[in-house]
Specification:
- β4 and β5 form a beta hairpin.
- The relative contact order is 0.16.
- The chain has 13 helices and ten strands.
- The strands form two sheets. Strands 1, 2, 3, 4, 5, 8, 9 and 10 form an eight-stranded mixed beta sheet that branches. A two-stranded parallel ribbon has the order 6-7.
- It is an alpha/beta fold and 336 residues long.
Length: 336
Amino acid sequence: MIRKSLAALSFAAVAPMATAQSVTMCVFDVIGANGDMYNMVKDYALEMKAHGVDFELRPYTDEGVAVGDFNSGQCDAVAATDLRTRPFNRFTGSISAVGAIPTYDDLKTTLATLAQAKAAPLMKQGDYEVLGIVPAGAGYLFVNDRSIDTAGELAGKRMATLDYQKDAIHMVNHVKATVVPSDITNFAGKFNNGSVDTAYAPAFAYEALELYKGIGKDGGIVDYPLAQLTIQVIARDDVLDDDTAQKSREVAWGMYGQAMDLIQRQESAIPEEKWIRIPEADIEGYQEMFRENRLQLRDGTDGANKVYHPKMMSLLSKIRCSSNPGASECTAPDRE
């Protein structure tokens, strides 16, 4: 009897550790299960097993379908770009605000801040919670004509614009370019076949989506980060308890170095002659233009929707002014 009781107690003690919580996740990667984004999520899922969560990953090459299946309850969580996950959390969805994070050092500070436990309340919105954020790379403007190297040159040009990205549409209208509604599955094709003059994407798209075809002999990539794109893992709020959800965000933050190594390799692989370098003298003007647009998209003025979260805009302003205190925005009366 004593031996049986001890055996029962021993089993009870190890049973919770042996039973992992099963969570299904829809994972978007334009390449599918062989893509870098999917493999990054696989690494995250592997590490989460040590914290009692067993993710079942389902690859999707169409981001809209991945998010749609999450919405319909076919998955407990979804991993997708913040451009698509913004409706689930406006705060973290504002990381990709136009021109808001000009350097990777500022991005690192931002994501380190958001991974802290004190930021946990901001990771929840309604019935959803952000379980992790990983960099996907700065978004650059790809053009089919190197003369398109200033905001003024964009006037009248056809720009492939994601039809659900309200801030991008506002920005395109601001520079008097022509919005050509597109989505993640067809924008590259439109640029490559000449249907549009410009497209917006991280460096990985140069090879993976063959944007070098659209660039051709006369085009290039404008070397200025229009925004910092991220992969965000979103789950229903009741999927993980608060402690495990926080551990998940810390695990994702721990992958920052791995993600940045990949991004920097992708950027370095682009031939130097394909980059269009922006003169330092022009950069401050662009930053002020972007700032004006962010204020409009924060407040819903000048025909813009209320897209950006005020708290995120304030946080990013503090980070920028910490790294570049001499910037004119840091003393502006309408500072974000």
